Amino acid sequence: MQEGGEKKEQEKDFVEEYSKLIGLLLLSLVLILLFSSPSLLLAKNITTIDTELSHATNDAVTVRARLDLGSSEHIRAFPMKIGDWRGMTSDLDTSRVAANLGADVMLMRDYWHAKAQQPVFFLIVQSSNRTSFHPPIVCYPAMGYEIEEEGKVRLAVPNASWAERPLYSSWESKKEELGCFNGTISVKKLVVAKKKGDLGEVTERKVVLYFYLKESSFSENFTMIRVSAFAPPTADEGGGSYAEALNLTEELMADAFPCMFELRGGEEPVLFILLFHGSVAGKVGVGLLFLVPLLVFFYPRIKRYF
Fold first, then answer.
1. Do both 88 and 39 map to the same domain?
2. Which residue in 38, 83, 126, 224 has the fewest CB atoms around it within 10 Å?
3. Which of 34, 63, 35 is nearest to 47 (CA)?
4. Are 62 and 193 contained in the same domain?
């Protein structure tokens, strides 16, 4: 009996001793909950767009995926029609390409636009093994291409409400300072060519745009989205130009964004929604959420009065 009493006394002493720390932790959790947006709390597929796979860059933008890009079923349901684009299943051997890329899930489509005389090749590939995955700067040289140009382009994204925004309405005046989404997205660009002969005659040239989707730091999965189109082997050749090929790839990638990421407007924090737009029960709930950590924080003082 004496040992049981000592144990209870130790538990009581522990609560009293660390009541302030426990109260502060509970208060922090309440603040995080109330100052988060509803979609951030409920969304399952929060991910980051970036131009590099190995590290985070200033181009990174946090988004909410509409599709589970790791699901073969979701990938197969990706729309065949995107605006004025109509898709066709690629003739390439997808199983061989998937093996070469080290892919777990892959989608390959050819998209045709009414104004264009050639398709744009669209690729979604997800992998859980970064060591075996071949990014375009490695994959194209391995297939016999020479990289002629490497850089970045910024795409104007239609209906830009798909992007996650800061919690506060004053973000517009500070978006440049905070590096927030400004209506465009940065993607990597490659111009690759196959050459033959001693003079290096170009027999095939492609324009390639791509970016990566990186999940949370606890996940090994990542996704690459890539579009590409043929460009004329020589600048003065008829039937199209480098600029036209680049415009086609940019247009398809921009048009595909709303299919990949959920469109939504700006959202207020949960706290503001409950206080200014919610019912009486919501307001009472906010008060109780703040009351619990305060009671824990002041537990030793409250105990003295009882």
1. no
2. 38
3. 63
4. yes
pLDDT digits 0-9 by tens, 93-114: 666 777 766 777 888 999 999 8
Residues 6+ positions from 166 with CB-CB distance below 8 Å: 178, 180
Asked if residue 191 and residue 85 are part of one domain, the reply reads yes
| Domain carrying residue 305 | 24-43+268-306
What is d(CA 190, CA 135) in angstroms, rounded to the nearest whole number? 12
Q: What mean pLDDT is predicted for residues 204-213?
A: 94
pLDDT band at 169 (very low <50, low <70, confident <90, very high): very low
pTM of the model: 0.67
What is the pLDDT averaged over residues 214-242?
75
For residue 249, being part of any structural domain is answered with yes
The 3-state secondary structure of 2-34 reads HHHHHHHHHHHHHHHHCHHHHHHHHHHHHHHHH
The residue-averaged pLDDT of 258-262 equals 78
Place of tokens 């209506």: 183
Indicate if 192 and 102 belong to the same structural domain.
Answer: yes
Rounded Cα distance, 306 and 303, in Å:
5
Alpha helices of 156-241 — where are they, by DSSP H?
171-178
